Amino acid sequence: MKTEGYNAGEHYDEMISEEGEIREHYNEFYNHLKKTSSKKMNQLQHSANQTQRSMGMTFNVYHDNQGMEKILHLDIIPRIIPNSEWQKLEAGLKQRTQALNMFLQDIYNERNILKDGVVPSDLILKSKDYLEPCIGLTPPKGIWCHITGTDLVKSKDGEYYILEDNLRCPSGVSYMLESREIIKRVYPDIFNQKGVMPVSNYPTKLLRMLQNLSDKPKPVVGVLTPGVYNSAYYEHSYLALQMGVELVSGVDLIVENKKVYMQTTKGLEQIDVLYRRIDDTFLDPETFNPDSMLGVPGLFEAYKAGNIALANAPGTGVADDKAVYAYVPKIIKYYLNEEPILNNVPTYLCREEEDRQYVLDHIEELVVKETNAAGGYGMLIGPKATPEEHAKFRELVANNPTNYIAQPTLSLSTVPTLTDEGISGRHVDLRPYILYGQEIEVIPGALTRVALKKGSLVVNSSQGGGSKDTWVLY
């Protein structure tokens, strides 16, 4: 079937092939779009926007002069992924999660991978995210990264590539869950006909995974939030509510005899597992940052004593550093003796002289990233930058090469998106969520982030991106 009025351009489009044929997994939905008027689509989008506002689906943008709280725009045209494609993604993400967990256990204990020269010792031991208090620790059940959000992109060749790993406090899962509820109402008939895998059981699976970290038959679980001014507070409160557990901040907790207690109206109640949404160094002012007003004095000693489990474990941030990312294929090979199922984006490490020279010579063609920046900050997109910006980043890279990596400018895939000009292709990435409990499980859906500006490759919500519901088919 040929498309009418929809042009993918030179990029890989997930709905139509280069020949203009509708891809099989989009057939039914494309037929539905053809029958729906532009006016009706705009009405549906308006209703979805209103529903988001009534649900309070907001996030904070600290660098925005227009006011901090914003709606994460949900485009009503879902992204559809066939099951065969998802199975490869699932296998690759499980493999990667297992290897990264083994890596974390090793670098905080035996350090075999460093002794064997597979990963440079200084890259790990001098990293600000390598936490000395965690040296010699093995977390409950030997699991470091309980909740992972891994970012992928689909390139011109139709293959997925890992863009980065998020092993600290990955956010966005509440938008995946709430978006699904909204989009199901937009397309009730077609949703049921298509056979879309469910994501609504995520809170149940998350709770089960958290409970698994304790040996108690009925462990008390809480979500530890920095508070209402945090950009992801909506998500913290949403997940606590969905799991039926307490939402707590540092002031609600107290440590006595290396045990952590919640202050309740009935007195103190011991808490066994914390899903913490506070950065590592703010967790405990006695162990990490003494100026932290968000954490709990004595929490880390209680953790070391085995009286409380923390998800994710402190110290995981060192493994999602963008420079360490370049070594993950070697990490997989080292621990699992397997080739990576999912490939990295080719990466130049500016800490290495040959790579650095290449980056300085070809900066106009590359994406340059700070190794510890997030949210689309600290980044140069060479082909879209000005000569002044190229010069600035050349200087930054030359002066502090260990702080930067560079990658080719990928031609991100496009998916149909409702715009002011009608339905048009926009660039997307994909963030599936992986839970590591008794086994590693990839939730069959994901947060699809979409660059709403025509031609833009920046999908981050803090940089003006939006989101889509992601349908994984049976």
Automatic annotation (TrEMBL):
Pfam families, per the entry: CP_ATPgrasp_2
InterPro entries from the UniProt entry: ATP-dep_Glu-Cys_Ligase-2 (IPR051680), CP_ATPgrasp_2 (IPR025841), UCP005522 (IPR016450)
Circularly permuted ATP-grasp type domain mapped to chain residues: 78-451
Protein name in the entry: Uncharacterized conserved protein, circularly permuted ATPgrasp superfamily
Native source organism of the sequence: Algoriphagus aquimarinus
Lineage, highest ranks first: Bacteria, Pseudomonadati, Bacteroidota, Cytophagia, Cytophagales
